[in-house]
């Protein structure tokens, strides 16, 4: 049973910003509560004060702008899955969010909570990072935009200051990228990822049959202290004159070497590292060769 904690319930974003700039005790946000309450049960010291942001409407919107989509940090996973432009053009994000937890978890869990938790296994993070997403961090005094790739600094740690909140996730619009996401876990559903990979890729087929990679973005989850971009693999693919089977194999080997996994209760270093290549190979097969 959860005992001895305080819940503050600001009624607008301005009130949230005021509360977190004046609070003098360690606190956590309560949005869907699917992470924070579980952790408090395991460790009552995890949070003694919760700032309930679950009813702040301005945090829950998803909007289309000229060159971006802006997702409020309080947008629920189900809302992301129901947003038509994402279903059409951001398949990698939709696949990842659809795999989070169970229908119950997706109906209350949020993207802001998945990011705020800063777990290297947070499933929405790899596709968002692969799409070059940014987050808006707001405090009472300031407002800054941080690339998601620069947001995380370790397991459970980010550059967010104690007087800041993630208000928005900013997703650039792209032309021509096909994307996908895949993970391995102990089970097919309601499982924590052992390894995950997100790929967004645009290939051009030449009349001579060769395939050139015009654009590629790869992010790997649960294989380093934070979700990471596989920059060396991306560079190799962009410079490859023809994306044939040998080039795909080489790209997958580079991805394995870019990972820095640990051994823990869910998996071990060798398996995680090897599976980075397997997942990337599967995604290239599906998105480029339609297999
Ligand atoms: C049974 C079960 C299955 C799960 N399966 C998965 C899974 O498959 N994949 C996966 O990735 N996760 C999974 N989770 C974890 C969790 O559901 C997700 O991470 C979810 O997205 C968290 O969102 P939330 O709104 O519930 O976060 P909360 O629990 O409300 O908050 C989580 C953390 O984020 C911080 N936070 C929340 N909102 C903000 C904000 N706007 N700005 C800054 N910080 C913020 C809070 O301070 C807290 O530290 C599972 C959890 C359970 C209980």
TrEMBL record:
Alphabetical list of SUPFAM superfamilies matching this protein: CO dehydrogenase flavoprotein C-terminal domain-like, FAD-binding/transporter-associated domain-like
Keyword flag Oxidoreductase: yes
Entry annotated with the keyword Endoplasmic reticulum: no
Superkingdom of origin organism: Bacteria
Assigned keywords, A-Z: FAD, Flavoprotein, Oxidoreductase
GO MF entries: FAD binding; oxidoreductase activity
TM helices/strands, residue ranges: none
Classification lineage: Bacteria, Candidatus Walliibacteriota
Pfam families: CO_deh_flav_C, FAD_binding_5
Domain FAD-binding PCMH-type: from-to ranges: 1-176
InterPro entries named in the record: CO_DH_flav_C, CO_DH_flav_C_dom_sf, Diverse_Substr_Oxidored, FAD-bd_PCMH, FAD-bd_PCMH-like_sf, FAD-bd_PCMH_sub1, FAD-bd_PCMH_sub2, Mopterin_DH_FAD-bd
Organism field: Candidatus Wallbacteria bacterium GWC2_49_35
The protein, known as: FAD-binding PCMH-type domain-containing protein
Gene3D superfamilies named in the record: 3.30.465.10, CO dehydrogenase flavoprotein, C-terminal domain, Uridine Diphospho-n-acetylenolpyruvylglucosamine Reductase, domain 2
């Amino acid at each position: 049973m959860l005992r001895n904690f305080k819940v503050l319930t600001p009624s607008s974003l301005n009130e949230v910003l005021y509360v977190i700039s004046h609070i003098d005790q360690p606190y956590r946000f309560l949005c869907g509560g699917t992470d924070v309450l579980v952790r408090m049960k395991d460790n009552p010291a995890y949070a003694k004060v919760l700032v309930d942001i679950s009813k702040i409407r301005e945090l829950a919107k998803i909007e289309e702008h000229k060159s971006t989509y802006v997702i409020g940090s309080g947008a629920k996973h189900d809302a992301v899955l129901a947003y038509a432009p994402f279903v059409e053009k951001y398949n990698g994000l939709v696949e990842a969010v659809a795999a989070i937890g169970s229908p119950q978890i997706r109906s209350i869990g949020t993207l802001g909570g998945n990011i705020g938790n800063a777990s290297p296994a947070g499933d929405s993070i790899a596709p968002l990072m692969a799409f070059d997403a940014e987050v808006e961090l707001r405090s009472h005094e300031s407002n800054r935009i941080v690339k998601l790739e620069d947001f995380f600094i370790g397991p459970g740690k980010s550059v967010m200051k104690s007087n800041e909140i993630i208000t928005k996730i900013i997703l650039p619009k792209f032309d021509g990228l096909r994307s996908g996401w895949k993970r391995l876990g102990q089970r097919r559903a309601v499982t924590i990822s052992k390894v995950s990979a997100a790929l967004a890729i645009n290939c051009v087929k030449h009349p001579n049959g060769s395939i050139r990679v015009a654009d590629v973005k790869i992010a790997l989850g649960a294989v380093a202290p934070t979700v990471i971009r596989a920059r060396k693999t991306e560079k190799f693919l962009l410079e490859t004159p023809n994306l044939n089977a040998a080039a795909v194999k080489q790209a997958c080997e580079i991805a394995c070497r870019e990972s820095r996994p640990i051994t823990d209760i869910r998996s071990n270093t060798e398996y995680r590292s090897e599976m980075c290549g397997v997942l990337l190979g599967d995604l290239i097969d599906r998105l480029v060769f339609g297999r």
